[in-house]
Write a structure and sequence with these properties.
Layout: E1 5-11, H1 16-27, E2 34-41, H2 45-57, E3 61-66, H3 71-81, E4 86-89, H4 100-105, E5 112-121, E6 124-127, H5 131-135, H6 141-154, E7 168-171, H7 172-177, H8 190-201, E8 205-216, H9 230-240, H10 245-252, H11 254-273, H12 282-293, H13 296-304, H14 312-322, H15 329-332
Parallel strand pairs: 1-2, 1-4, 2-3, 5-8
Antiparallel strand pairs: 4-7, 5-6, 5-7
Length: 335
């Protein structure tokens, strides 16, 4: 009998159109031994009822309703309740090609298995992660780990998905034995932190050239929306630097770690502080920026990051932060 795969899907008020397409792509997988866990993260009654309807129709779908606490806790609840030997995470507005799990599971067995993601930009599709083709030829697991961790931290392009949670299959026992879970207080890069822990601890890793996941750019998803919780985001970013990964990354991946911190700051500026919908006045924006700079851990990365590792916008960001030209930041993020 083929091994059971638990697919964990956090759901928070996802449009029925997207949610239905996602669930149908799971139900109709050619790999049939599935345990589909829908984690309702405090959705409206309409969405919650829609999930229950699917559960009533399909024996391999379970729904867990909980209060809204964010995607990291929702995924952890899924891990706590998963029945399968293998774990896969799928976002509620994404889809799996129908042979995804058959490609990932049937012929292979590793602590972590990675496939490629197809990015759907409003109908225009692009397959990312060209480095997979190179890494997949590597046989030394130490070299594979190093390349994956560097790629996850650097995120060189919008189609870089080594750090993303999609298109990965994890051995459940491996996650449990190494206590690999999502940090509940990290709102930026929680999936990257999860994957880096997995890469660091894995005894064997498989990197496939197959496209096994379709990521749809949805303007209404949580990752795309403006957040008005600026102070929380700043505080969470400081906490993220205190996780036990920090010393290991700084010791072995200092260059990439510094670039990752700049990415985090840039993402927070885009999503919140300098977002076009922000209600913050200019002096309030500057106060948020200064809070970040007042933390020595951020200053270390800002002052030491190698600019050649960064995109043009992030290079400009670092230069403005180093020279304290805060008044130009609003202009940078208006471009």
């Amino acid at each position: 009998m083929v091994d059971c795969v638990s697919i964990i899907v956090p759901v928070y008020n996802t449009k029925k159109e997207y949610l239905s397409e996602c669930l149908e792509s799971l139900i109709n997988q050619t790999y049939k031994n599935l345990d589909i866990l829908l984690i309702d993260d405090g959705s409206l009654t309409e969405t919650a009822d829609f999930l229950d309807m699917y559960s009533q129709k399909h024996d391999n779908i379970r729904v867990i309703h909980k209060k809204n606490e964010g995607v990291s806790i929702a995924r952890n609840v899924g891990l706590d309740n998963a029945l399968g030997k293998w774990i896969m995470f799928v976002d509620a507005d994404d889809i799996l090609p129908l042979d995804s799990l058959e490609k990932m599971i049937v012929e292979h067995s590793a602590d972590v298995m990675l496939g490629k993601i197809c990015f759907n930009w409003n109908g225009s599709r692009e397959v990312g992660d060209e480095q997979y083709d190179i890494i997949s030829k590597e046989t030394d697991v130490k070299n594979i780990k190093q390349e994956l961790i560097k790629s996850a931290l650097l995120m060189k392009s919008k189609t870089s998905s080594v750090g993303a949670i999609g298109a990965k299959v994890y051995r459940k026992k491996f996650l449990e034995d190494n206590n690999i879970r999502f940090e509940k207080y990290i709102k930026l890069g929680e999936d990257i932190m999860f994957n880096i822990r997995a890469y660091l601890n894995a005894s064997n890793i498989l990197v496939s050239k197959d496209v096994v996941y379709e990521y749809r750019i949805n303007s209404e998803s949580v990752t795309q929306k403006y957040s008005d919780k600026v102070q929380t985001m700043v505080d969470d970013l400081v906490k993220a630097l205190d996780v036990n990964l920090k010393e290991r990354l700084q010791a072995n991946y200092k260059r990439e770690y510094n670039a990752f911190i700049i990415y985090q700051i840039n993402y927070m500026f885009i999503k919140s502080i300098f977002h076009k919908e922000t209600s913050l006045k200019h002096n309030e924006q500057i106060a948020c920026v200064q809070k970040i700079l007042n933390d020595s851990k951020y200053n270390e990365s800002i002052n030491n990051v190698e600019l050649n590792l960064l995109s043009s916008r992030k290079k400009a960001l670092v230069i403005l932060l180093r020279t304290r030209l805060y008044f130009l930041l609003r202009l940078l993020y208006a471009l």
